[in-house]
Amino acid sequence: MTLTKAIRFYGTGTPDVMRYEDVEVGAPGLGEVRLRHVAVGLNYADTYFRNGTYKIPMPNGMGVEASGVVEALGEGVIDFVVGDRVTYTGFLNTLGAYSTQRLIPANALIKLPEEISCETAAAMTMRGLTAAYLMRRIYDFKKGDTILLHAAAGGVGLIVSQWAKLLGLTVIGTTSSEEKAAVAKAHGCDHVINYSHENVAERVRELTNGVGVNVVFDSVGKDTFMGSLDSLKRRGLLVCVGTASGPIPAFDPVLLAMKGSLFITRPALADYIADPAEKRELANELFDHVRHGRIKIEINQRYELKDAVQAHHDLETRKTIGSSIFVI
């Protein structure tokens, strides 16, 4: 047995439900590896597990994304060797990332190119693969299309905006402050709307000569739902990728017809990386952009694992900008 540190929680609620504990890690079983973490990703999705939005058995571990070094192989593992640098993200199959070491199914892992550090990987695997499927799978973008990107200065937002510019799209971002607006513009947003004092839908109509945008990427949820619909052009697509302000209230689908025969989807990353071949394809495209500098990954907040409670407070009160990680 190996003694490791991990964040565990025994019931849902505020950040204070998380506990920093000693945990024993045994030998890897069939199809597993023992992984020594170097860095762990901090994602808004983590708060959904913690507060009960995503239902999971209790007690449980926290976090679904990390990177590190393979320390031991279980029976049947042939795609990795001890010493490989890897990264991962997922859903239930990768819960427990907030730890110094862990066991994990080998089929969840992605080998890292030499040019990408473990810290960069922890800051970009979940966010980057999310951006990859949003840009490459959700909609058949054409050069000149326009998108509205909520939380444009967030970890996913900064990658999406850079990727969108590579595709020749016009990007309208929303932020809550002038500081975040400056960050969003520096990463590719053509226009930034400060939603704390501007009406988003009205500004979108002004910026698009009354037409609206092709696609809205909305990670905020309840507070922005109607404004997002009102920002779309006829037959536009609303992509609901998160509910930071709370779940979207129930609505009559006839509303979509009344607002221009709109489309709406609520995708999950897990369904876009479930197929190993598709996961490799998306990861390779992401890695290629990052290694050649076309997409830059900036880590703006670093925490120690024992400070997970503070990290979640910072995340939920919108004190963070871009990507955040735990350094092990």
Automatic annotation (TrEMBL):
Q: Which GO terms describe its cellular component?
A: cytosol
Q: Does the keyword tRNA processing apply?
A: no
GO molecular function terms here? mRNA 3'-UTR AU-rich region binding; NADPH binding; quinone reductase (NADPH) activity; zinc ion binding
Q: Spell out the InterPro entries in the cross-references.
A: ADH-like_C, ADH-like_N, ER, GroES-like_sf, NAD(P)-bd_dom_sf, QOR-like, Quin_OxRdtase/zeta-crystal_CS
Q: Provide the Enoyl reductase (ER) domain boundaries.
A: 13-326
Going by the UniProt record, its keywords in alphabetical order are: NADP, Oxidoreductase
Catalytic activity reads: 2 a quinone + NADPH + H(+) = 2 a 1,4-benzosemiquinone + NADP(+)
Stretches assigned to coiled coil: none
Stated EC number for the protein is 1.6.5.5
Task: Give the top-rank taxon of the lineage listed in the UniProt record for this protein.
Answer: Bacteria
What does the sequence similarity comment in the record state about its family?
Belongs to the zinc-containing alcohol dehydrogenase family. Quinone oxidoreductase subfamily.
- Cross-referenced NCBIfam families: PRK10754.1
Q: What's the protein here called?
A: NADPH:quinone reductase
